[in-house]
Amino acid sequence: MNVLEQDFLLAASLAGVLVGNPVRVGTENAAKLGAVRMALAAHSAKPESLLVIPTAVASGVPDQPVGWEQITAGARNRARAALAVGDCTLAVGIEDGLVRLSDQSIGSAEKSVDSGPESSDSLDHWFNIGCAWITDGQREGHGYSSAFAYPPEVLGPALSDQAPIGDLFDDHWSRYKSMRPNAQEAAKDVPSGRGGGNIGRLTGGQLERAAYGSHAVACALIRFLHSDLYD
């Protein structure tokens, strides 16, 4: 059952997108575009009519965001920049990065990034989180994905240097493939940020990047699905 058949009070912008009005996504990454299409298709009576437009914009944050603030800002910046390009009813930004999940407050956890080398114990607390931000110029909503851990040899430089995680993972998979003959198929020469992504490789294809990102988009859509509950 799509949302038009349910007792939801959709924002006009989302209602328009579900019947074919354009939605811009602040990226050209196929997996992120797939995440938006997947989340919207779940609510559309005619998913084939969805018009998802890739739009290359800057995130305004480091290539490897660290902390909730950078991750959320990157998604927000992408969404607002994509909307500013024009010719769309909704715009979406998606940004992934690292957050520390522990008993510390969020503020003190983020400050720990600058406090020196991480111990192996503290590395266990870092996870990848994705944020999706949606805007129509007046209404805005955002949500987050589930979390997963990076292998330690990738996580270390991602934190210390904020190096692009795609490059780090590509090097990692290349070494992994050479050490494990059975990994040949799982580690083909596809950039880590594309296709099924690192989450796809790490889960053996059980959760690929588009589906992973669609969770954040689905959460960000809530304010547009229930405009009466959030106004």
Q: How many DSSP helices?
A: 11
Question: From the coordinates shown, what is the CATH architecture?
Answer: Alpha-Beta Complex
Which structural class should the secondary elements be placed in?
A: alpha/beta
Overall number of structural domains: 1
Apparent shape: elongated
Q: Overall mean pLDDT score? A: 86
Helical content band: 40-55%
Strand content: 5-15%
Q: How many β strands by DSSP?
A: 5
Low-confidence stretches: 105-117
Features of this protein?
11 helices, alpha/beta, 5 strands, elongated, Maf protein, 231 residues
Characterization of this structure:
The chain has 231 residues and is α/β, with parallel strands linked by helices. It has one domain (3-230): Maf protein (Alpha-Beta Complex). 42% of the residues lie in helices and 15% in strands. It has helices at residues 12-18, 30-41, 68-85, 106-111, 120-123, 152-160, 165-179, 197-202, 209-220, 222-225, 227-230; strands at 22-25, 51-54, 90-100, 126-135, 140-144. It has a 5-stranded mixed beta sheet with strand order 2-1-3-4-5. Strand 1, helix 2 (30-41) and strand 2 form a beta-alpha-beta unit. The longest helix has 18 residues, at 68-85. The chain is elongated, with a radius of gyration of 18 Å. Residues 105-117 have low confidence and may be disordered.
Chain-wise SSE layout:
Blueprint: H1 12-18, E1 22-25, H2 30-41, E2 51-54, H3 68-85, E3 90-100, H4 106-111, H5 120-123, E4 126-135, E5 140-144, H6 152-160, H7 165-179, H8 197-202, H9 209-220, H10 222-225, H11 227-230
Parallel strand pairs: 1-2, 1-3
Antiparallel strand pairs: 3-4, 4-5
